[in-house]
């Protein structure tokens, strides 16, 4: 982590190290890390997409094993919506596109969306 100089407030008196030049500089020593915004990728239920197709989507694009994929698919089927995973913006966007493209290629109406956490 690079130590960034931080410009401090004006110093009015002329008796400090900066002797009336009006500014002083300190250096941040602690690394400042910021957490990325995270997004949930969700599958929406519909009446037409085959259960097996949804399980395949979860295995292929979300690295779920068969048991986890089946559990998530049934959750979506029973509750209307369910979480496939949590990702940074660009990864989430890519997953949504991959699922929507794959569903369209197979002429299923499956909907996949992302939502800021
Ligand atoms: N409801 C669908 C059916 O009964 C199955 C399904 C599950 C569809 C999850 C979409 O995201 C979905 N065939």
Automatic annotation (TrEMBL):
<dbReference type="Pfam" id="PF02617">
    <property type="entry name" value="ClpS"/>
</dbReference>
<dbReference type="GO" id="GO:0008233">
    <property type="term" value="F:peptidase activity"/>
</dbReference>
<dbReference type="GO" id="GO:0030163">
    <property type="term" value="P:protein catabolic process"/>
</dbReference>
<keyword id="KW-0378">Hydrolase</keyword>
<keyword id="KW-0645">Protease</keyword>
<feature type="domain" description="Adaptor protein ClpS core">
    <location>
        <begin position="34"/>
        <end position="112"/>
    </location>
</feature>
<dbReference type="InterPro" id="IPR003769">
    <property type="entry name" value="ClpS_core"/>
</dbReference>
<comment type="subunit">
    <text>Binds to the N-terminal domain of the chaperone ClpA.</text>
</comment>
<dbReference type="InterPro" id="IPR022935">
    <property type="entry name" value="ClpS"/>
</dbReference>
<dbReference type="InterPro" id="IPR014719">
    <property type="entry name" value="Ribosomal_bL12_C/ClpS-like"/>
</dbReference>
<dbReference type="GO" id="GO:0006508">
    <property type="term" value="P:proteolysis"/>
</dbReference>
<comment type="function">
    <text>Involved in the modulation of the specificity of the ClpAP-mediated ATP-dependent protein degradation.</text>
</comment>
<protein>
    <recommendedName>
        <fullName>ATP-dependent Clp protease adapter protein ClpS</fullName>
    </recommendedName>
</protein>
<comment type="similarity">
    <text>Belongs to the ClpS family.</text>
</comment>
